[in-house]
Design a protein that fits this description.
four-stranded mixed beta sheet, alpha/beta, single chain, two-stranded antiparallel ribbon, about 160 residues
């Protein structure tokens, strides 16, 4: 689902109706909102096995109790990516970027590795290695990072 044509109500209705392998949405986001709020994500029913969220900083959160510097104040309980997996939905894993980014999506290479190699963790690792090899500089890699939350052993075959 892409920018501007979808509403949270329609999306959540579609999620309730079925379980899919992948659900991939690409909208302007922040750590607490990506088409749905973190509360809506937590209460979502059904959905799919793996969620791919392309919006900016959707995986950004502050580790509770940590004194490490991070540039976001969102706690995991209020993070939309975390809520998708650890809420009431059927999602076992989700991927998204902890950073703001305006670049090509990174989901297509994940699909290629997923269907060729079988399980999510390996596909994610192979995609990151490929991005590292193909990257002209380390700054480019920062905008392509994807965080995997949930079960890395999900197999959609």
């Amino acid at each position: 689902m892409d920018e501007g044509w979808q509403s949270a109500d329609v999306f959540l209705s579609h999620m309730r109706q079925a379980r899919r392998r992948f659900v991939w949405w690409n909208v302007h986001s922040n750590p607490e909102l990506s088409l749905v709020t973190s509360r809506q994500a937590y209460a979502m029913q059904n959905g799919g096995l793996i969620a791919l969220l392309n919006g900016c900083a959707v995986a950004g959160f502050r580790q509770p109790g940590s004194h490490s510097h991070v540039d976001v104040g969102t706690l995991p309980a209020n993070n939309v990516l975390v809520s998708v997996v650890y809420g009431q939905s059927a999602f076992l894993a989700a991927l998204g970027s902890p950073h703001n980014r305006v670049n090509d999506e990174q989901a297509t290479p994940l699909f290629e590795h997923m269907y060729a190699d079988g399980y999510l963790g390996k596909a994610h690792l192979l995609r990151l290695r490929q991005q590292d090899r193909d990257s002209p500089d380390p700054g480019t890699l920062r905008t392509r990072q994807e965080m995997l939350i949930g079960d890395p052993f999900v197999d959609t075959r």
